Fold this protein.
Amino acid sequence: MDFFKKLMELFTNSDSERALSENTGISTDSIGKVINYALPKLIDAMKNNASSSEGAQSLYNALGDHVTDRSVEEQLQTVDTEDGEKIIGHIFGENTDSEISTIAEETDLSSGQISDVLSNVAPSILSQLSSSLSNSDGSGDGSGLLGLLSAFKE
């Protein structure tokens, strides 16, 4: 299974949706819509960031801070949303507000609600990416990271 499909399954299963709903106060149906729309945008932005050696190295270094053997559901129960906000800011960069607004418009939620969901899932996304990278070639120069990100379905 490719990494993108794995992420989709991890964040749209009933336990994850329930945890996200409890954390954000958003219905599980709306959580599913946000994940389905936002995850490809996050992956594309990470892929763009990792296309430069500096961006790949920065993302690769951030993965070291998100190594865990806890399940996504466990991570969501104790998520550090301040860390999640920082991650989203790094992923989307200067486009953060416009990306969040676009996702909000597409999902009929507020920008604040989208920001809450993304801040909850971002640390777990990095944890999953870290785990997948360590199970691939483990390349520390970012080339393995870009290869993993490039394999995502557009």
Summary: Residues 111-134 form the longest helix (24 residues). Residues 3-150 form one domain.
